[in-house]
Amino acid sequence: MPARTTTAAPGRVNGSAHRLLRSLAFAVAAAVLAALVVWSVAVPLLGVDLMVQTNPGGSKAQSIGAASVLAVSLLASILGWGLLAALERVTQRAGTLWTVTASVVLLLSLAGPLTTAVPTAAALSLVLLPLSVAATLIPLLPRPATPTPPSRP
Description:
65% of the residues lie in helices and 4% in strands. By secondary structure, it is mainly alpha-helical. The longest helix is centred in the first third of the chain and has 31 residues, at 15-45. The relative contact order is 0.17.
């Protein structure tokens, strides 16, 4: 009887890769959902008008809707996932580098709401949006396992 192999057929995803992909997708979906929950509490429930100035020092303001929150949080999450995947290919410290980079990007993203939000309640709500995405994505995105050196025959 021939020995059974555990390699996947070309074009198929093996079990561990499928679990990894599922956990990555879950992390992205959870981060987007967290941002939408913040928006849903702030806007429909509390009546906060999420407005930002479109030109610094001007009087023109733009409202931030659920579609914008969904799109930006999804894009940021996918970019974070992509950066983690790229770092995993070039360094063994991908998890650490990604966490530091994500934290710096979070801090930079807080500058916008603090400088362009019109009312104070809007500024607070807009600060909570990237915080909710980061607080979900940073711990949930799977980090690469510590690589083990190849065994020698």
